[in-house]
Specification:
mainly alpha
Length: 359
């Protein structure tokens, strides 16, 4: 099936891509700041203070600096990229920048609107990290003459309201799966440096350790407030697990050249990432998805095919195109609902929530 990655040829194209909201694109969020202000982390105080000391130590403060050879290497390797790979890589840069900057904006807004000293300090540190990541990605876009005006992105992107607990589930998962994705890529290119088609991948190990620590922060918040991990909330945890996994699967299969250029098969890569993420999330979630269930892989592929057909309808436009988009969007949602009812695996939470990035 033909994959539809919208072409990015100008600054306007990059800006439009960053601002556009689709079912599978990164979003900007707002939340209930008063509820965030009421959070109590005393039940995990010792682990929290140790984590905050790590943030304060800021072992990545000099990491996101481009050395003299970066732009030169990027230019040299760019000539070796196929047009398809170049477009998929630009799409990756824009969506990754949007995602990182989304975290920066959210954490800054929470910091500005709460008085709780624990939460305020945490949000300041995480916004600092995400700002560095977004700036680093934007520098690589600027190498292509496609830098994004982040101030304008903040003003023009629409915002989605999420209750704090949804922020915890979704952001915890996005940070942990981000770690799993980046460390898998880093390890692959460490073994096969000839497949490193851009210098940014050399930064992925310490970058994903930032993501890992951000996930640890939300894990501690949830462990300190155990009601978030019980009863009806387990149904929400299942929903967010499935939504994050399905989103990743569709995105990666829409950009197959990107993984293939690294010597990775998109489906196998995704399932390796799911396995790492399942292991990590046992620190805080009482359930994990059964990714080895026979229907799991099959239905992810169905969701991807539905998404592609819906995109084709959207691209075609007109009455027929809109009907096609609506039909396949509903079909994809129906497959998602079927997947939601695949039995999950239960696990007991460990005594301590803290993990180290050891993959």
């Amino acid at each position: 099936m033909h994959n539809q990655v919208s072409e990015i040829k100008s600054v306007e194209d990059a800006a439009k891509k960053a601002v556009t909201n689709t079912l599978f694109s990164p979003r900007f969020y707002t939340t209930d700041y008063e509820a965030m202000d009421r959070l109590n982390i005393e039940p995990v105080r010792a682990e929290w203070d140790a984590m905050m000391a790590e943030y304060e130590g800021d072992n990545n403060h000099d990491h996101f600096q481009r050395d003299a050879s970066f732009a030169e290497e990027a230019r040299e390797l760019a000539h070796k990229m196929s047009p398809e790979l170049r477009q998929e890589f630009l799409d990756f840069l824009v969506s990754s920048l949007t995602s990182e900057f989304s975290g920066c904006v959210l954490y800054n807004e929470i910091k500005r609107n709460v008085n709780n000293p624990d939460i305020k300090k945490l949000m300041e540190y995480m916004a600092r990290d995400e700002s560095r990541h977004a700036g680093f990605l934007n520098s690589s876009l600027k190498d292509y003459g496609l830098g994004i005006d982040l101030g304008n992105l903040k003003r023009s992107k629409s915002y989605t309201y999420f209750k704090p607990k949804y922020i915890f589930y979704a952001t915890y998962l996005s940070e942990k799966i981000g770690y799993a994705r980046y460390i898998k890529i880093f390890r692959q290119l460490e073994k096969h440096p000839d497949k490193r088609f851009h210098p940014i991948f050399r930064w992925f190990q310490r970058w994903c350790n930032d993501e890992f620590r951000h996930g640890e922060s939300f894990a501690l918040i949830m462990r300190a407030n155990p009601g978030l991990l019980k009863g009806g909330n387990v149904l929400w945890i299942r929903f967010f697990l499935l939504a994050v996994y399905a989103t990743m699967y569709v995105r990666d299969h829409t950009r197959p050249e990107l993984k293939q250029a690294m010597g990775l098969a998109p489906t196998e890569y995704d399932f390796d990432v799911f396995r790492i993420t399942n292991e990590i999330t046992k620190q805080v979630f009482p359930v994990t998805l059964d990714i080895d269930h026979p229907a799991f892989r099959e239905n992810l592929d169905r969701i991807y095919r539905c998404a592609m057909k819906a995109d084709a309808g959207k691209a075609a436009g007109g009455i027929a195109g809109n009907l096609q988009k609506a039909f396949w969007s509903v079909a994809g949602a129906a497959v998602f609902v079927r997947m939601y009812f695949i039995p999950v695996k239960s696990n007991a939470l460990p005594a301590s929530a803290r993990l180290v990035p050891s993959w």
